[in-house]
């Protein structure tokens, strides 16, 4: 299972505010059967890598559909194959180490 961080930034817009673009992008993600977490700076998505990349492609198009003249999309992929990984598992691992210290 992959964990992917994606940031989609519309450029060439009339305003510096992007929250309405973020909301529209998330409407696309909500239709998918993927676990995700919205953060203040990006979105984390968990699932099959092919499924995630397909939805990221759809998400990338949303700002263009809403009038952006340019879109910058950054993707970081954590694809661990030696054991099952999840967003929750990664956080638990760090929290356990914080308690021990």
UniProtKB/TrEMBL annotation:
- Record Pfam families: Thiamine_BP
- Lineage, top-rank taxon, reads Bacteria
Q: Which SUPFAM superfamilies match?
A: MTH1187/YkoF-like (SSF89957)
Q: Which residues form the Thiamine-binding protein domain?
A: 4-95
Q: Which GO terms describe its cellular component?
A: cytosol
Q: Which InterPro entries match?
A: MTH1187/YkoF-like, Thiamine_BP, UPF0045_domain
What is stated as this protein's family in its record?
Belongs to the UPF0045 family.
Q: In its UniProt entry, what is this protein called?
A: Thiamine-binding protein domain-containing protein
Q: Which organism is it from?
A: Vulcanibacillus modesticaldus
